[in-house]
Amino acid sequence: MATRLFEGKAHASYYQKFRFSPPQEIQDLIFSYMGERLTKPYGFAVDVGCGTGQSTRILVPYFEKILGTDISPAQIDEAEKADDFPNLTYSACPAEELPVDDASVDLVTACAAVHWFDTEKFLKEVDRILKPRGCLAFFTYVPDMEVHYKDRSEQLTKVFSKVQDALDPYVNDKVYHVKTGYKDIFDAIPYTDKKRVEKITVKMPMTVAEVLGLMQTFSMYQSFLKAEPEKAKELVVATEQRFLEILEVSTTEAKVELWMNNVCLLASKPE
Ligand SMILES: C[S@@+](CC[C@H](N)C(=O)[O-])C[C@H]1O[C@@H](n2cnc3c(N)ncnc32)[C@H](O)[C@@H]1O
């Protein structure tokens, strides 16, 4: 059965506000991998589990046609409100049943999403829709994030780690795939031309408000909020206070740097 943790309208609007686009490092990796296997112009890309479209709209300049899909109508609704590109459409549907013709797709992406899908069914669906030599790119950030600011990085990261500890009881079983760097999903990809790139470190400038906002998009925070709303809100307030104390500032517009490790699976369907 599908795991439905991203359905609420409030959660979707947090997504629209605080999720970031896939880092340039990962985009470069994908387009260089594709460039070695397919010739331009690229025709059709499908971004599965697209949320509010942050991972989808980056594909607009590269493809004639792009489809973003997500099981949550609330997420699709936010994506459609945000975007108006003639070559981009969205559809609310499960990853395991995509409204896409056989052998029609150059690239299938899933950003911070493939671990939520039924791996076996999804990989069959990807194989059905990919053209020969078509590529897949499944990537995500992994939980060991660090918050950096001058000589305060250790203290800030400790606060962030404490948040992750507090959220630990609410981590869904599927997040196991993320913690293990998508190893099992990689092994399940049925193609010989495949690679798993680990430890792609990305340093993202963010305000304290953006770090706190991002934290509230995490599925484990949303599960905590559902189970214990008061405690969950207190956690955000306490974290904000600690960040401001450590930084010796009074505004959440203060800038820090969030360091994230990412993993990316790349593969290409045989001819
Ligand atoms: C962590 S979010 C990532 C969203 C977006 N790709 C991003 O990077 O911001 C995971 C998304 O996968 C979607 N999802 C979960 N299970 C799904 C399924 N079986 N089929 C399609 N989408 C699914 C959720 O609704 C959610 O929007």
UniProtKB/TrEMBL annotation:
PANTHER family: METHYLTRANSF_11 DOMAIN-CONTAINING PROTEIN, S-ADENOSYLMETHIONINE-DEPENDENT METHYLTRANSFERASE CRG1 ISOFORM X2-RELATED
Top-rank taxon, per record: Eukaryota
This protein's name: Methyltransferase type 11 domain-containing protein
Pfam families, A to Z: Methyltransf_11 (PF08241)
Annotated source species: Leptobrachium leishanense
SUPFAM superfamilies, alphabetized: S-adenosyl-L-methionine-dependent methyltransferases (SSF53335)
Listed InterPro entries: Diverse_substrate_MTase, Methyltransf_11, SAM-dependent_MTases_sf
Domain Methyltransferase type stretches: 46-138
GO-annotated molecular function: S-adenosylmethionine-dependent methyltransferase activity
